[in-house]
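Pasting two entries for a bug report.
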Amino acid sequence: MNKKKWMAGGLIVMALAGGIYYFKSGPKTLTPSDFEMTAVDVGRISKEVTASGKIQPINTVAVGTQVSGIVEKVLADYNDEVEKGQLLAMLDTSVLVQNTKDTKARLDLANAKMKVAELNHQRYQKLFKDKLIAKATLEEAEVELASAEAEVLSAEASYAKAQREFNYASIVSPVSGTVISKEIEQGQTVASSFQTPTLFQIAEDLSKMQIEASIAEADIGMIVPKMPVTFTVDAYPNDVFNGMIKQIRLSPTEEQNVVMYTVVIEVDNSSRKLLPGMTAFVNVQIQELKDALRLPTTALQFKPNAEVRQFMDKQMFQLDSDQSIVYRLENGRVVPVVIRRGLSDTSYVQVLEGLKAGDRVIGEFIQKSGKRR
């Protein structure tokens, strides 16, 4: 009997101890201090697409040469303003001069031969008419005349080619603009045997530039020509520059399994602050609301864990594509609220239905180490 009483007493003590432990450490209710709370307010929401790209002149012309030779003079340098037709460099022309003289002599000789052939042909025609020579002799004279005429045409082509090559030794600018690259120095040998070497690069007008920005396929549907953009560059971190979308190129590229499209942005560079090759960080504003009822996007990311679900009633919701669930704290209970979303950006989402300004919702549950909440 004493043993049974002892066991019963032990069970009572254990039950009391468990109750005390549960009362002290077990879940009772939740308070705002258990969460990071966030509030619904009224403010700006801006839907934006960001990208980056290089600033380049709208039209850059590569100036080369079609003949080989030693550079005799270089008359233009980096950053020089040049006019169309201006002499930029000269190649050594000594070999080209000799080639021109040689082809001119060949042309003169061919003309002389043709004149002799013409005279012989005229003479044989008269003799044949007087029946003093056979027809075969006249035909031979006709062939010699035709051959002489062809030789003249060939000599004329060679002479014209030699003259063009002589002219090519003078490197002139095909456009008016600014020299942004110079690839030759005096005394350098230029070889054009296999491809035309680039000697200068000329930007036609640096007061107008363009940005070639890469935009992902998920965002390209929101981009249209003539849409205004803003951008910054590292050289002027406090300045915001403006531009306008000129073109969406249809040929895609792939970067790390993401399909990207090149968007060309026109930029006014009248200040000449922007230099070719600068990296532009582009911001395309798709839509803006200045007085929207908004909620931080972190509230939509909160999902109750097992501890928090102890303080929730089980409910099932069927949501539309523009609806989400957020959670409020009411009298120690976590209450789900269905909201209808509108415009969103990286920080805020517009609330169309379900909440009003000043309402507070749960942003994140605070888990204190070693204690159940």
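Entry 2 (this is the one that rendered wrong in the viewer):
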Amino acid sequence: MENFKYIILGAGPAGLTFANRLLALGETSFLVLEKDQEAGGLCKSKVVDGSPLDIGGGHFLEVKNRKALAFIFQFMPKAEWRQYHRVSTIRLDKSEIDYPFESNIWQFSIRNQLRYLYSILTAGSVFGKPKPENFKDWIIWKFGNQIARDYMIPYNEKVWSVNLKTMGTYWLNKLPKSSSKEIVLSYLQKKSKVAIPAHALFYYPKNFGFGEVWKRMAKKLGNKIRYNEPIESIHVHNKIINGKYHGSFIITTIPWRVVNFLPSIPDDIYQAIDSLQYSSIRVSYYPEQIQTHAQWTYVPNKSVSYHRCLYRSNFCTNARGYWTETNKKRAELHSTRHQPFWINTFAYPLNTIKKLEATKMILTYFSNKQIFGLGRWGEWEHMNSDIAVTKAIEMANAMDKKYHLL
């Protein structure tokens, strides 16, 4: 039995940040266990067709998160990153407009401008109707029938591949916050007045894929990472992993659903874990060069399998081609015969209506056993990498302060 103060499950952004922060605080009694042969989690990159490609989907570094940037730049200095103004578009039938949809209605034909402006101005939110509790009804309430039917509902059904009425509305801070006044002003001035909540400005490595920074974090840890170590069991009371690693504290950044807990945990906790849902995506690469000013495009049309297309030559140095992201349920209906692809089984946590209640039960129960959830999968929250970094720093600081003398 190997004994450590901290055992960290998963070498993605959250796990790597937590471990490196411990090291910076002078803590050396820890071990990171990673099921794959390399670090990075969903942020891994591989060289494909002569240039890096992010095989877990599109990931970009938020410019506004100063705490995360200060930490990340210790491993990959700011000089190795290039800053971009976000240019993302929406492809709808024969039109392609800038994102977000509601502040760029003026880019459509006159006929569609009238349809979509009318949709916004007759939406339930404009008239003070009560906000719905499920995502599908919220879309109609917020944007009106026409925009919901043509864009928001089909796009989100493609991304999540579930009944949107099973999803809640508590997570919608990820969408642009727009008022009817801002939308009308955008229309009249032909200029977006709606702020984009994330990645309006972003960093991407000059000479590498996004996975490079996580590789460097892992390298800093040396032999404190064990690769090819899938988590087969956690003994909850003794805090023993796979029957051979013991930790005073366990930090888990891996999906709760993949773990076998020993001995049996309470039925209500099992049920809460079982209620957590997720979506899987396929990332496919195509070598063709597409002429566009965008870094990525959203595609709501259901006759097209993928929901997002990323043009890597517009943010990745000396690259060509593009990659697509497709929900795995939809991807199974479409061939990948002629292009390389990667399946990410755990890609996005689903924000189901009762998810917050379930995660609160799970995290409370396990934290009382000195097992703590962290990051996208430990907290079952669709967080970007910079948020995972920030949360990991804060948790490491708090735990070191509380348990430093243990």
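Dev reply: Rendering is fixed now. As a check, the viewer should reflect this: The chain has two domains: 2-87+205-403, 100-189.
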